[in-house]
């Protein structure tokens, strides 16, 4: 796999920031202070390091919302979101007694007029730079972005929600900044559903805002549509993928182990506590994260050997050659050692969970999800597949997941049957775990005559697969169809016109080329961007990389308001029926 | 991206009346001496920045030396003449690099000490302490990178020498493996050819000379590395101590704390207000005996 850092989202975002904020900053070679709000802190943290900033003459970073020490003879760079709270904090720095010599102001998106006027009238003379740089999404991975908004799920799907429209507007703004950062003006398409309109609404908002953005943008100047497509789809289109027990390393780890803020905490044999960040700085993680756990486990003995070999006996004769070799490896040696230790631990924990109970669950789950067993025989009676799971003492969440998979596989069940299942799992007081799926447009209670057309899946019988990992997320089918330009226009209507003959093959008409495209740059030739309303799963993120790797000429980028884990999704679904009056704390397990 | 500085300035020039009242608001406070928060550590920070700049320059010089060494090494491999003078220069460069490296390391230690003192004086979360600490971390990392470049250059030379020896040995008709060459270097002896006293042909003899020269070069290279490895290890440990947590922006922002204005400034204010209390003034008039 090509080095992640070559062309990933993080690199692109950092380059954007360098071209705007840093370039302005370097015009005067004095040290400056950088002031960030919680969002921009996350944004910068995800794409650069302190040392990168220091190389550009930024000496310290400060928190906008904390009371800061005045440093009168230094200029301050403010990088913040255009919200009233941020603007008030800014005004507080300069109105009565200025804290800094001058301010360079950068907003992540367009600043509303009222806030702009406030700043003008009250602190205008201190502002030396005022730019809106349109980056209001988080580059989570090289090909994954999020809008840092887990609350969007409730806002859009809860029947008690009052602010669905404003959430959709915010998400649309963020998606537009993604397109702007990628320098794309995509054709927008959405998945047409009979019972849910959110994708259509969001698509219309995005299309509209894209047009407006490219009118206002300084650098774009009446940009035409580029070779890119943006697909918008709702979570309900594939309820199976977020519920299934996945066996690829990253998805499995986040499902079975409590990983908060991408930090894996573990104890070594000597009792010391360690922490490891699972990000793209960890090269071993990047290599392993999409692999099946079986392949990762195969690497374990090798890693154990390498780790114990590195623990050299101190009295062993240190020859010069060994010394020189150690010096050569020293910088990255310790880092690699740490990475190996981390993944050794993580993989072992995953396998432990797997052999304890997940293994037996997986077979039933796969049969229900795929609709046929490992030998290809169709499942005739889903209830027979489900029953053993219900009878075994699995955890409640695992049983709920199995029941849901059953319901999805039969396209909804009768009220009577559902009650029996709920009784069996003993969630009479928590039946919202199952019932509230209707808010996402997924049929739960249907009459026996209800017929819902299940999406026809691509034939993957030729692909080599593990028996317990036969399910492929529906989004992969969508990606492959889109790249081959096979998406049905009735199911996926276009909004405004897409560029003629968009296909993912990378064939770009000579007129539309802005820059000479070398063979390697064909990767940036066309892009497919997919946004899932309601959260995206790790397995779906993996599909983006798999398809990009297979197709090579089209880069697939996926994103959502936040990233889901099965547990966090179940909790969120249950919470949909709570009104805001009740003090119910949702245990937020998503990592967005 | 949109630049709105133009709009900002237009507004200001259009409505000067609005700008003036805000300035006037500041004047009534002239009754008290304007409490401009003086940045406490201004002088100290200036000193640290100057020092940082000088150290950056030194490291640049170090890097240039390393590049020069690399060129020298390459020259040694390709030219056959005046080997001794080239060797002399390589060693001289090696010594220079070591000296410069040690000087920079000493200054880094001093800077580190200064940074710790500032922390004690102004508090760990004060702006000046954080600025000093981040400079320390940054310079340490830069220095470590420079040393790594040196190590890479020497390692490359090492590999090239070994390859040369192998090839020359082949010319002589003798197959030599990498491990045997390593052993040669370890023992310092050119034992390979001790059993081949009678060498036939001029090409074989020149090949042998060539090998002997390479071998000597390798030994000297090892000597240079041995000299400097101590410094290198110290650096590596230091960089590791500081860890990558300090490089993480979110962690840095999370460490900041609300700034509490110095208690003394507030106390002074309180005393002044107390003295100017009109009730107290009256009382003082009535009761001159009271202070």
Structural commentary:
The complex is a heterodimer of chains A (592) and B (291). Chain A has 592 residues and is α/β, with parallel strands linked by helices. Chain A has 19 helices and 13 strands. In chain A, the strands form three sheets. Chain A has a six-stranded mixed sheet with strand order 6-7-13-12-9-8, with helices on both faces. A five-stranded parallel sheet of chain A has the order 2-1-3-4-5, with helices on both faces. In chain A, a hairpin with a 2-residue loop joins strand 6 (138-141) and strand 7. The two termini of chain A are 25 Å apart. Chain B is mostly helical and 291 residues long. Chain B contains ten helices and one strand. Chain B has helices at 5-14, 16-26, 42-78, 83-122, 127-171, 178-187, 202-242, 249-255, 263-275, 278-286, and one strand at residues 2-3. The radius of gyration of chain B is 34 Å and the shape is elongated. Chains A and B meet through helix 2, helix 3, strand 2, strand 3 and helix 5 of A and strand 1, helix 1, helix 2, helix 5 and helix 6 of B. Strand 5 of chain A pairs antiparallel with strand 1 of chain B, so a sheet runs across the interface. Chain A: Pfam families: Sec1 (PF00995). Chain A: Belongs to the STXBP/unc-18/SEC1 family. Chain A: Keywords: Protein transport, Transport.
In a few lines, what is going on in this structure?
Chain A: It comes from Oryzias sinensis. The complex is a heterodimer of chains A (592) and B (291). With 592 residues, chain A is α/β, with parallel strands linked by helices.
Give the fraction of residues assigned to helices of chain A: 40-55%
Sequence stretches where pLDDT stays below 50 over 5 or more residues of chain A: 1-5, 503-524
Fraction of residues in β-strands of chain A: 5-15%
Count, helices of chain A: 19
Beta strands of chain B, count: 1
Tally of DSSP helical segments of chain B: 10
Report the sheet with the most strands of chain B, covering strand number, pairing sense and barrel closure: none
Largest interface: A-B, 67 and 64 residues
What profile does the largest beta sheet of chain A have?
Answer: 6 strands, mixed
Q: Specify the oligomeric state.
A: heterodimer
Shape of chain A: globular
Sheet with most strands: strand arrangement of chain A:
6-7-13-12-9-8
- What's the pLDDT, averaged over the residues of chain A? 87
Task: Give the terminus-to-terminus CA distance of chain B.
Answer: 66 Å
């Amino acid at each position: 796999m090509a080095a992640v850092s070559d062309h990933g989202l993080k690199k692109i975002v950092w380059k954007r920031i360098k071209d705007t904020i840093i370039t302005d900053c370097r015009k005067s070679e004095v040290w400056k202070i950088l002031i960030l709000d919680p969002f921009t802190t996350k944004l910068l943290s995800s794409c650069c390091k302190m040392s990168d900033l220091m190389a550009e003459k930024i000496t310290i970073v400060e928190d906008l919302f904390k009371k800061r020490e005045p440093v009168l003879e230094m200029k301050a760079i403010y990088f913040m979101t255009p919200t009233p709270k941020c603007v008030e904090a800014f005004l507080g720095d300069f109105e009565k007694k200025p804290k800094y010599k001058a301010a360079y102001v950068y907003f992540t998106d367009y600043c509303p007029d009222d806030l702009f006027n406030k700043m003008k009238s009250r602190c205008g003379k201190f502002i030396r730079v005022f730019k809106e740089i349109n980056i209001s999404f988080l580059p989570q991975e090289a090909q994954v972005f999020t809008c840092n908004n887990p609350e969007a799920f409730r806002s859009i799907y809860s029947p008690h929600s009052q602010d669905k429209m404003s959430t959709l507007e915010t998400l649309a703004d963020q998606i537009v900044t993604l397109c702007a950062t990628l320098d794309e003006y995509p054709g927008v398409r959405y998945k047409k559903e009979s019972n849910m309109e959110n994708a259509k609404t969001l698509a219309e908002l995005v299309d509209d805002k894209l047009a407006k953005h490219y009118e206002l943008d300084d650098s774009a100047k009446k940009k035409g549509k580029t070779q890119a497509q943006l697909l918008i789809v709702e979570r309900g289109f594939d309820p199976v993928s977020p519920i299934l027990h996945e066996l690829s390393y990253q998805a499995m780890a986040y499902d079975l182990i409590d990983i908060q803020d991408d930090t894996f905490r573990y104890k070594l044999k000597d009792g010391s506590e360690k922490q490891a960040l699972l990000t793209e700085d960890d090269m071993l993680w990047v290599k392993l994260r999409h692999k099946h756990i079986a392949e990762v486990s195969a690497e374990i003995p090798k890693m154990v050997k390498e780790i114990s070999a590195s623990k050299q006996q101190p009295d062993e004769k240190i020859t010069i050659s060994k010394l020189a070799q150690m010096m050569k490896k020293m910088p990255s040696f310790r880092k690699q050692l740490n990475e190996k230790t981390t993944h050794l631990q993580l993989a072992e924990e995953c396998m432990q969970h797997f052999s304890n109970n997940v293994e037996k669950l997986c077979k039933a789950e796969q049969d229900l999800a795929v609709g046929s067993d490992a030998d290809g025989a169709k499942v005739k009676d889903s209830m027979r597949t489900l029953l053993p799971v219900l009878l075994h003492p699995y955890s409640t969440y695992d049983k709920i997941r199995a029941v849901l998979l059953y319901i999805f596989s039969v396209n909804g069940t009768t009220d009577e049957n559902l009650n029996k299942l709920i009784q069996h799992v003993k969630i009479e007081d928590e039946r919202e775990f199952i019932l509230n799926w209707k808010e996402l447009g997924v049929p739960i209670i249907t009459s026996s005559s209800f017929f819902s057309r299940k999406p026809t899946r691509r034939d993957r019988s030729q692909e080599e697969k593990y028996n317990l990992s036969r399910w492929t997320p529906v989004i992969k089918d969508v990606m492959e169809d889109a790249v081959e330009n096979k998406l049905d226009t009735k199911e996926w209507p276009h909004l405004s016109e897409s560029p003629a003959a968009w296909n993912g093959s990378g064939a770009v008409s000579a007129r539309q080329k802005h820059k000479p495209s070398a063979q390697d740059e064909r990767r940036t030739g066309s892009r497919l961007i997919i946004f899932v309303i309601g959260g995206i799963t790790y397995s779906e993120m993996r599909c983006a990389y798999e398809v990009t790797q297979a197709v090579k000429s089209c880069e697939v980028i996926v994103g959502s308001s936040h990233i889901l884990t099965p547990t966090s999704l179940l909790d969120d679904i249950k919470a949909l029926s709570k009104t805001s009056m009740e003090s119910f704390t949702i245990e937020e397990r998503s990592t967005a | 991206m949109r630049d709105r500085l133009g709009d900002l300035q237009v507004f200001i020039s259009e409505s000067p009346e609005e700008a003036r009242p805000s300035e006037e608001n500041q004047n009534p406070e002239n009754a008290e001496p304007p409490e401009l928060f003086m940045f406490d550590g201004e002088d100290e920070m200036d000193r640290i920045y100057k020092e940082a700049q000088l150290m950056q320059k030194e490291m640049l010089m170090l890097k240039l030396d390393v590049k020069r060494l690399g060129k020298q090494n390459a020259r040694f491999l390709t030219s056959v003449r005046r080997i001794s003078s080239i060797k002399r220069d390589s060693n001289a460069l090696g010594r220079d690099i070591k000296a410069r490296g040690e000087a920079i390391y000493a200054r880094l230690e001093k800077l580190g000490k200064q940074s710790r003192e500032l922390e004690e004086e102004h508090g760990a979360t004060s702006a000046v302490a954080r600025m000093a600490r981040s400079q320390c971390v940054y310079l340490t990392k830069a220095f470590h990178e420079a040393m790594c470049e040196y190590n890479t250059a020497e390692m490359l030379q090492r590999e090239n020498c070994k390859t040369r020896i192998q090839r020359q040995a082949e010319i002589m008709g003798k197959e030599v493996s990498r491990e045997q060459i390593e052993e040669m270097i370890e023992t310092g002896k050119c034992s390979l050819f001790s059993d081949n006293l009678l060498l036939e042909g001029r090409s074989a003899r020149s090949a042998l000379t060539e090998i002997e020269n390479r071998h000597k070069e390798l030994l000297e290279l090892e000597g240079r590395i041995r000299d400097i490895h101590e410094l290198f290890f110290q650096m590596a440990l230091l960089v590791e101590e500081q860890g990558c947590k300090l490089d993480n922006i979110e962690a840095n922002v999370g460490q900041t704390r609300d700034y509490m204005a110095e208690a003394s400034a507030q106390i002074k204010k309180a005393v002044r207000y107390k003295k100017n209390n009109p009730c107290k003034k009256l009382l003082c008039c009535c009761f001159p005996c009271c202070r």
